[in-house]
Amino acid sequence: MKKELNGISYTDLENEIISLGIERYRAKQIFNFVHNKKIMSIDEITNIPKKTREILAENYTLNKIKIYDVFESKEDETVKFLFLLNDGNIIESVIMKYKYGYSQCVSTQVGCKMGCEFCASTKEGFIRNLSASEILDQIYCAENYLDIKVKNIVLMGSGEPLDNYSNVLNFINLVSDENGHNTSLRHITLSTCGIVDKIIELSKEDLPITLSLSLHSPFDDKRQQIMPIAKKYKINDIIEAMRYYFRKTNRRITFEYTLIDGFNNRPEDAKELRSLVKGMDVHINLIPLNPIKEFNYGFDGNKELEKFYNLLVKNGLKVTIRREMGSDISASCGQLKRRVLPKKEE
Ligand code: SF4
After folding, report:
1. Does domain 3-61 have CATH number 1.10.150.530?
2. What does pTM read for this prediction?
3. 74-117 pLDDT per residue, tens
4. Is the CB–ligand 1 distance for residue 152 below 6 Å?
């Protein structure tokens, strides 16, 4: 099977082309065309001789994904993409415009095996991991379509990034390569449901990316009711791993906290959250629940959200309410695919 040219690191490319009889300096030209000109075929690498292109085509392929559908919010400038993979699977990605630039939420797996009750991405189960090039191409496709440059990348779409560890790591290295897309590592956020051994492994990679924990409750028994993975990893162990990450990278940790009516917005939740974050630079992101048909326990309006926000602030916590974006286009992960696909395939 041919290797994916758009999934190889710059250093590996240099080493591999030498063994194919191609001069080392060509790596920069090839990498530049693949990642900055965002070509669709090896034939388009026109800054190298035809013979070199032929050698590349004999040994590599470009794994490109295609836009399947695009949905643009009428409420704000959020744009949601459905992408078609070469094997016929479909994934989602969202572009959001903030005052500091464009941010893109990318998927890392087709489906997800983590089974969080409130999440649409997991309802059809896990299908497969995405390759590094498939994660990367979500950005290139969106950028080409909208004629923009994405500044912030959030690994928070379908899939648990740390369950696809090596491809995700490869993606982070590729997208931050100065010869390629050149995204600052500080502008990358990886969101996990709390896979302890992988958090520790990631801490040792020495990458200053932001680590975000889907916490949703500071109590094990509560977490276990909505996140099956919580039966395997206890909060104390996860927090210990997050502390290790914080010590190694000195990067602020984020907790994502989806508010579920009467479930995780009690004064004791705020108190417990305060004791969990002691000694760490933690930011809590309060998220209004985006209801799905299997899980519909969100708040009616913002009053309760603000009440809990004030409670956390009173407890000395740093907290923001995540502004809901693109709600008219089902911008939460997994929702759009479920809404649109049955209709398209009728
Ligand atoms: S919230 Fe994340 S980890 Fe949980 S099922 Fe959805 S995609 Fe998977």
Report:
1. yes
2. 0.93
3. 888 899 999 999 999 999 999 999 999 999 999 999 999 999 99
4. no
